[in-house]
Design brief:
Distance between the termini: 26 Å
Strand content: under 5%
Number of helices: 6
Structural class: mainly alpha
Length: 117
Amino acid sequence: MLKVGFIEQQMQIMADAVGHAMGKDRLAYEMTDPYRNEAANDLNQRLENLLADGKINEAENLLFDAVQNDAQVDHDYLRVALDFYMKMDDYTDDYLALCHFSRQEIMDGWAEITKLF
């Protein structure tokens, strides 16, 4: 449990730092210009739809595929990824179990995605 708590702290610190650098209290991906980064906007929308349907595994796979395969990965993708993991971290353990996902998988995914950036 100590390891999970430490990683959750690191997630929050990184999200706060990125959010602060962007002049925001809490980091959340916001589509400010629909034409600025259409790929990141599309990815964010697809992730939100999958999360709303409880398809967490599919959403995480989509995120990793996009980050690993898109030549235009930039800070918008990082914001999408941070927002994605912060949203999942807000889910209850019961909801995660219902979606066949775990808090440990959130932490593992977070650690992997930060390595890619």
